[in-house]
Design a protein that fits this description.
- This protein has 527 residues and is of the alpha/beta class.
- The chain folds into 3 domains: 250 residues, 3-Layer(aba) Sandwich (Aldehyde Dehydrogenase, Chain A, domain 1), CATH 3.40.605.10; 181 residues, Aldehyde Dehydrogenase, Chain A, domain 2 (3-Layer(aba) Sandwich); 36 residues, no CATH class.
- The protein has a 7-stranded mixed beta sheet with strand order 15-17-18-13-12-19-20, sandwiched between helices.
- The longest helix is centred in the first third of the chain and has 24 residues.
- The chain binds NADP nicotinamide-adenine-dinucleotide phosphate.
- NADP nicotinamide-adenine-dinucleotide phosphate binds next to helix 7, helix 8 and helix 11.
Length: 527
């Protein structure tokens, strides 16, 4: 049952006077669910509860926190069909996607639980004292990663489950030992409330402190701004637009005590097509790319928005096949009228640039909020000159650039901003032949793909989802995979600290049995 209230810790609360409804983009009408935006008092209460909860939660063992994460996954599953129905109504996304994303969300929670149960993620490092060292004795130093404090997570519009209320940001923050306050995404506040209820139930079952989690509704930027500037908040996770992410990043840096904002933002995910890919498998790649551009109505941060090839008859063939293929695919409903109108506006703006040709366009009249795909082409010189063409169009849209030669291709890559992914289509000889192009691409991206499509982000320890600005605000971190935990921790050194008062991870006997670096060598032995 959706109440429309905020969760301030365990309490449902409706103190504010601003209300909003979510929207069903397929029916093009508001949903039946009305939500109460959090007011200042509720924001302050959530932050102060989180601050107190932190002092208790941070002390819990990894195994105890893991039971909480596993219980959340179980409670999400227990929400059953209601969650799937609310998700599909609020997002316009199909049931299969909802079920898949729910599985991914539970999988992420369980992956972090397993990480905690194993325990070595804290990177314990011990340099024992050398009292007899000459000319000076050496002190005992032991270091490990410790949680930073309450984290604000902004639910993202394009992943109502996997990057929202109990998504990767929340799961990684809980795993690190940090309480979470979610700023629910206004487009799927009902989905958010259901998942929030699952977290609250799991917290009660596993005896977590009140305030370890709160969920706040909002339909404007004020609640998010207030949270990011609140003194109790120590970090922020965000997925969304460059405009939104950079605004929050600036706000956090203007605080008297700046805090990190890990924002994952825009990307055109360049694809570099070397000649062999076109001569050997041009049609196959064209068809695969038509599908990748259309996937989820292009509402993925890894959508292939820019394809670079060297002009040739085989590139012309690739463009023709891609255009013909994408033209046959049915448009898909977008998440919300605002995202749809942003898409239409950006698509028209780029299509109106000089020297740009349309390769494929879906012109048939469609129902409201359906994304009509478009693919453009332009030559390398004009692309280089016009940086408007470099911007992300969030939706089923891509630009194919006909570069005059390999050096123009390299010049284009050098001019691009940071990206989440970069892809090379070709063979291994071409990796050698065009090494400077490949190196230039690698410098721009967080993940570099050989002979594949960028859509589809595996959740595993080796995934890097993030890249140089503006793909993300800090390219050293990932928002997908268990490595995401590192965003919410900081190293602390304990000098000459009494053994029994050290965290277990650093104690002589190694009671957790974790792998540590002792005197520079990896070992799980006791000291
Ligand atoms: P958004 O505009 O970036 O908003 C994301 C969240 O941040 C929302 O909850 C929004 O709050 C909040 N927000 C935005 N600007 C803010 C500010 N200045 N201060 C405080 N809070 C702020 O993204 P969206 O609504 O999900 O979608 C809009 C566009 O973002 C899309 O059309 C697309 O271009 C882009 N997008 C990109 C990705 C990606 O992965 N690259 C993913 C999703 C969206 P309110 O909604 O309550 O105002």
């Amino acid at each position: 049952m959706i109440s429309g209230a905020n969760y301030i810790g365990t309490k449902l609360s409706k103190k504010g006077d601003k209300q909003f409804n979510t929207f069903n983009p397929k029916l093009n009408i508001p949903t039946e669910w009305t939500f109460q935006e959090a007011n200042e008092e509720e924001i302050n209460d959530a932050a102060s509860l989180a601050k107190t909860a932190f002092t208790i939660y941070r002390e819990f063992s990894g195994k105890r926190k893991a039971t909480f994460l596993r219980a959340i996954a179980e409670e999400i599953e227990n929400l059953g069909d209601e969650l799937i129905q609310v998700y599909t109504q609020e997002s316009g996304l199909p049931e299969g996607r909802a079920i898949g994303e729910r599985g991914r969300t539970m999988g992420q929670l369980r992956a972090f639980a397993a990480l905690l149960e194993e325990g070595s993620w804290v990177e314990a490092s011990i340099d024992p004292a050398q009292p007899n060292r000459q000319p000076m004795p050496k002190v005992d130093l032991r270091k490990m990663l410790c949680p930073v404090g309450p984290i604000v997570v902004f639910g993202s519009s394009n992943f109502p489950l996997a990057f929202s209320t109990a998504g990767g940001d929340t799961a990684s923050a809980f795993a690190s030992g940090c309480p979470v306050i979610v700023k629910s995404h206004p487009m799927h506040a009902g989905t958010g409330e259901l998942v929030a209820s699952a977290i609250i139930k799991a917290a009660a079952k596993t005896e977590m402190p009140n305030g370890v989690f709160s969920n706040l509704n909002s339909s404007g930027i004020e609640v998010g701004q207030h949270l990011v500037t609140h003194p109790a908040v120590k970090g922020v996770g965000f997925t969304g637009s460059i405009k939104g992410g950079t605004a929050l990043y600036r706000l956090a840096n203007e605080r008297p005590d700046p805090i990190p904002v890990f924002a994952e933002m825009g990307s055109v995910n360049p694809i570099v097509v070397f000649p062999s890919a076109l001569t050997e498998k041009g049609d196959e790649w064209a068809k695969q790319y038509a599908g990748s551009i259309m996937l989820g109505a292009g509402q993925f941060c890894t959508n292939p928005g820019l394809i670079l090839g060297i002009k040739s008859t085989s590139l012309d063939g690739f463009i023709a096949t891609l255009g013909a293929e994408i033209g046959t695919l049915e448009p898909i409903c977008m998440l919300h009228p605002n995202i749809h109108s942003n898409y239409e506006k950006a698509k028209q703006e780029l299509s109106a640039q000089t020297s740009v040709d349309t390769v494929a366009d879906y012109n048939t009249v469609v129902a409201p909020n359906m994304a009509q795909q478009r693919v453009l082409t332009v030559n390398g010189t004009n692309f280089l000159k016009n940086t408007k063409l470099h911007q992300e169009v969030f939706g089923p849209f891509s630009i194919i650039v006909r570069c005059s030669d390999a050096s123009e291709m390299e010049a284009i890559l050098a001019k691009l901003e940071g990206q989440l992914t970069g892809t090379v289509l070709g063979n291994e000889n071409e990796l050698k032949k065009y090494k400077t192009i490949v190196d230039t691409l690698q410098d721009k991206v967080g993940r570099i793909i050989f002979n594949g499509v960028p859509t589809g982000v595996e959740v595993c320890p080796s995934m890097q989802h993030g890249g140089p600005f503006p793909a993300a605000t800090d390219s050293r971190f990932t928002s997908v995979g268990t490595g995401a935990i590192r965003r919410w921790v900081r190293p602390v050194s304990f000098q000459n600290w009494p053994n029994e008062w050290l965290p277990e991870a650093l104690q002589n006997k190694n009671p957790l049995g974790i792998t540590r670096v002792v005197d520079g060598s990896h070992t799980s032995n006791a000291l």
